[in-house]
Amino acid sequence: MISFIVLGWNESWRMVQTVQESCQPEASAKDNWKVVSDYIFREFTVLTGQGPNVISIPDKFPTMSDNIGKEEVFQKLKSLEQNIKGLKMLFFPAVRYSGVKNSKKPLQTIQSLDFSIFCEFRGFHFAMFVEVKCPDDIRHPDFMKTNKQLDTHISTLQETTFNLNRQAGRQIQLHAVWPSISKKDICHSPESCGKPHPRFQSKTYQSDQSYHTSNGSHIFREDLDGDNFSNWFKKQIQDTTKAMEKEDWMRVLSLYMVQSCGALYNKMEKYFYLLGQDQKNLLSLPPHDMSCPRLVQGVSGTGKTLTICAKIEELQHELGPENRALYICFNDNLVTQVRKMLKQCLGNIQYVSFLNYEKEEDIQNFYKDTDKMESWINQKGFKHIFVDEAEDLGVEEISRICQSISQMLEPADKTMSSKTPGYFRMKTERNVGHLWMVFDPFQSGRDQHGLGSKEVDGDDQLVWLGNKVKESLLKHVVNLRTIFRMTISI
Fold it and tell me: Less crowded by CB within 10 Å, the N or C end of the chain?
C-alpha cells in the first residue's frame, strides 16, 4: 500500500485530500496535480491565524540578510485581502530550492526567489514571480541581471527538473520591484548612452511595460504609495490573457508549496518530507552566538530530528573545511538513520559529522568545558552543532542547561539561583553559528517517570509521575507543537 497526500484547490477554497492509494493503476498527472485546499484551510489558516483569502507561508515576514524593501512588499501583499474583493491568494516569501536550469549542462544549482505568488480571481488563475531590488545606485547592468534572475526561475521549471511546458512558463508573470527608485530618477550609466537621461526612458524599461515577456512589469517607489500597489495588482489579475491553465497553475503551486513547506527531498526513495508551521519557524531563525545555544523542546512526532536534517540541508551550500556541521545523539541506530537520510537527500555529506555522545569521550560534557567548546567550534571548525535526544542527559541536567541559558539572557533576574551553572562558556567572543539542544523531557532514558492516575472529583485523571522541567525554566525554549507530515512521490 502506498500512502500519500494529494493537496488540491477547488472552487470553495477547501482542500481535496486523498490518502492511501492501494493497488490501483498509477494516477494520471492531471489527478496528481489536483492540489491544495483543505490543507491550506486547515493547516495554514487555523495554525497561523491568517486568511481566509490571503495567506503567506510563513505567516510573518522571515528574517533575511537583505530584507531592505522586501518587508514593505510583504505587507503590501498581505493588505490585498482588504483591498481586492474576491481575491484568493497564497504567496511564499524567500523561497530557496535547487534545480537544473539548462538541460545541456545538467548541474544542480541553488536558486532563491523573493516572492512566488499564486492567486485566483473570478475563476481565473495567475502566478507571479517577484524580485525586490534596493541598490544604492542602480545602473543598466543591474536591471539586466534582474531580468536574467527572473528568467532563470522559468528555465528551471521548464528544463529537466520540473518539465513545465513552455506555454505555461510564458504565462507566469515576472515582476521587478524597486522600492528605493523613482521612475523619474536620473541615470548616469555610461553603458547606456553616455549622458544623463530619465531613468528607464525608453519604452522597454518604462514602468508597467514589458521587458522580456508579455507578462512583466517594473514597479517603482511611486507604485507602492497609497492604493497604487493594490490598483496595479488588480490590473494584472483583471487581464485574463495573463491567466494560466488551472492544471499548470496547480502544478507550479504544488512545487512551490513543497519548496516552502517541505524540509527534504529524498532523491533515492522519491519522498518529500513536509514540516508544519512550528518547524518552519524554527528553520527560519537566524544564526546566533554559540555560547548561548538554542533550546528546542517537542514531544515525540513533532519532527525534531527531521527539522535538524532540514537545517543541515539548508546549510549545505555554506559548509566547508572550517565551517562544518555536527550531529550528536545518544544511540547508534539514530546516527545510522540520520546519516542515511542526509546521504540520500544531499548526496555529498563530506562536511557533516555524526557522533554517539555516549561513545565519544571527547564530546562528552563539551558544553561544560571551555577548552572543549573552543576545540570543537574554533579548532575543528564545527560552526553548526545539533544535539538530538538531549533529554538523555537527564531531566535534572536539562533543567540546569535551561537555567544557565536564562541566566545569560536575564542576568538581572534575582529569582535565579546563585548556583546557576556556567555552561557554554568560551574564551573567544561572538562565535556565530548554530548550537541546538533538542529534547523531549518526557522520554529521558535516565529518569524513572511515566503516566499514572490520580483521583479528582471521583474520576481518575491522567498525571505525569516523575521528574520534569519546571515551567519557569522553559521561557527561552522554542516549542514544537505540531506534528510533521510526510508525503510520497508528490
Answer: N
Backbone angles phi, psi at 171, to 5 degrees: -85, -10
Distance CA 243, CA 234 (A): 13
pLDDT value at position 438?
Answer: 95
User: Are 329 and 388 a contacting pair, CB within 8 Å?
Assistant: yes
CA 249 from chain centre, in angstroms, equals: 22
* pLDDT, the chain, mean: 75
Cis peptide before 58 (omega within 30 of 0): yes
Per-residue pLDDT at 267 exceeds 90: no
Nearby residues of 346 by Cβ (< 8 Å), 6 or more positions away = 312, 313, 316, 352
Q: Do 237 and 54 meet the contact criterion of CB atoms below 8 Å apart?
A: no
| Tens-digit pLDDT profile for residues 283-326 | 889 999 999 999 999 888 788 998 999 899 889 889 999 999 99
pLDDT digits (tens, 9 = 90+) for 195-233: 444 444 433 333 333 333 446 788 888 999 999 999 999
Q: What is the dihedral of CA 109, 110, 113, 116, to 10 degrees?
A: 80
Q: What is the DSSP string of 246-307?
A: HHHHHHHHHHHHHHHHEEEEETTTTEEEE--HHHHHHHHPPPEETTSPEEEEE-TTS-HHHH
Q: Nearest Cα to 4, choosing from 214, 27, 12?
A: 27
Whether the CB-CB separation of 127 and 173 falls below 8 Å is answered with yes
Please tell me what DSSP assigns to residue 26.
P
Could you tell me the three cell numbers for 130? 517577484
Give helix 332-346 / helix 304-315 axis angle, nearest 10°: 40
**Predicted local confidence at residue 449, as pLDDT:** 66
Does the pLDDT at position 24 exceed 50?
no
How far is the C-alpha of 76 from the C-alpha of 78, rounded, in Å? 5
Whole-angstrom distance, CA of residue 282 vs CA of residue 312? 13
